[in-house]
Amino acid sequence: MVLKMNVAALMLVTTMACSQSTNTKKQIDNPKMDNTKQQQDILADPELKKKLTPEQYNVCVGKGTERAFTGKYWNHKGHGVYACAVCGEKLFGSDTKYDSGSGWPSFYQSLDKSKVKEVEDTAYGMRRIEVVCKKCGSHLGHLFPDGPQPTGMRYCINSASLDFVEDKK
């Protein structure tokens, strides 16, 4: 019984650590730069709800999170690039993906820091960094300082916010 309660508590904390709320946020990379009109238009487009699955829409637009160990890419081993599911911007390379044990795709760096935006998130009484696509504003996941070298960072990203483009070698 105690073991079941400990496992349940661990699952709750893990889910909260990678989940998102609509709490007060501020941008880390440029506090003056808010979502642009173009980003707001992309995420508000009624066609987007038709393009994305309900789970993708909840994650990308509603800033939700998928359950751990259920996403399409958490254990994916392909070689290529992970792109934003909303706008197609190439964000993460398979060469920086690793198994963090969290149940979400994890990367130790993005392809290009100019492609992602980091926003402070203080939901649930925790201090986290939300990661969003800089091109369209789609919610991707969170960034934590517990990743492997060379960066020591872990981009904990929802599979639902990604599409995979396989290398054509």
Please provide a written account of the structure.
With about 170 residues, the chain is α+β, with helices and mostly antiparallel strands. It has a single domain (about 1-165), classed as Metal Binding Protein, Guanine Nucleotide Exchange Factor, Chain A (Beta Complex), CATH 2.170.150.20. It is built from 4 helices and 10 strands, in the order H-E-H-H-H-E-E-E-E-E-E-E-E-E. It has a 7-stranded antiparallel sheet, with no helix packed on it. A 3-stranded antiparallel sheet has the order 3-2-10, with no helix packed on it. The chain is globular and about 40 Å long.
CATH architecture: Beta Complex
Instruction: Please tally the β strands and state the result.
Output: 10
Query: Order of strands across the widest beta sheet?
Result: 1-6-7-8-9-5-4
- Shape descriptor reads globular
Q: How would you classify the quaternary structure? A: single chain
The CATH homologous superfamily is named Peptide methionine sulfoxide reductase
Total domain count: 1
Brief overview, please?
This protein is 22% helix and 25% strand. It is α+β, with helices and mostly antiparallel strands and 169 residues long.
Which descriptors would you attach to this protein?
169 residues; alpha+beta; Metal Binding Protein, Guanine Nucleotide Exchange Factor, Chain A; 7-stranded antiparallel sheet; 3-stranded antiparallel sheet; 4 helices; 22% helix; globular
